[in-house]
Amino acid sequence: MEFILTHKIDIRRAKSKDIKQIFSFIKELAKYEKLSKDVVATEKLLNDNLFGKRKYAEVLIAKFNGEDAGFALFFHNFSTFVGKPGIYLEDIYVRENYRNKGIGKALFIELVKLAKERDCGRIEWSVLDWNLPSIKFYKGLGAEPMKDWTVYRLTEIQFDKLTSKKEF
C-alpha cells in the first residue's frame, strides 16, 4: 500500500516581513480568548520589539499547505533552581479551520527542539482556566499543571504608581 501525503505542515522562524500576519494572529487569539479590548499593540511596536535592535521575543509561523495557519511567540526566562535558561511560551494559536491537523503539536515539537538545542531546562506557559480544549491538548503532550502557584502581574499603570511613591 502506498502512502500519499495529503497535507504539509511547515514551521519556520518569523521575519520582519511577517509582522502583519503576526499581528493578525494576535488579534484573532485575543478575540478567541475574549480579550480583544486588551490588545494595545501595534505592528510598529511589535516589529520594534521582535525584530529591532534588541529582540525581546521570537515567533514561529506555521503554514498548512502553504497557508498561514498559526503561530507561537516565546522568549527566554531563567530558573535559579535549575540553573539554566528556559523558554516561556507567551502565546500559541492555531486558526480554527486548521485545528486538529497536528499544527499545534508541530509548533510544540519545534519549540522543544529549540529548547534542547539551547540547553534549556524547561518550557512553561499559562492557560486560561476555561480553555478546556487547550488544557486537554497540553495534557496530551505530557504537560502537567503547576500546583501551588498563582500568576501575578504588574502592568504599566502599577509601574507608574510604584515609581511615583516616595516611600514604601
Gyration radius over CA: 18 Å
User: Helical region count?
Assistant: 5
Q: CATH homologous superfamily, by name?
A: Gcn5-related N-acetyltransferase (GNAT)
Summing up helix and strand content along with how strands pair, one would put the structural category as alpha+beta
- Low-pLDDT stretches are none
How many structurally independent domains? 1
- Overall geometry: globular
Span between termini: 73 Å
Tell me what you see in this structure:
This protein is an alpha+beta fold. It has one domain (9-164): Gcn5-related N-acetyltransferase (GNAT) (Aminopeptidase), CATH 3.40.630. Helices cover 34% and strands 23% of the residues. It has 5 helices and 5 strands; from the N terminus they run E-H-H-E-E-E-H-E-H-H. The protein has helices at 19-32, 43-51, 103-117, 132-141, 156-164, and strands at residues 9-13, 58-64, 67-79, 84-94, 123-125. A 5-stranded mixed sheet has the order 1-2-3-4-5. Helix 1 packs across helix 2.
Question: How is this structure best summarized?
Answer:
The chain has 168 residues and is of the alpha+beta class. It is 34% helix and 23% strand.
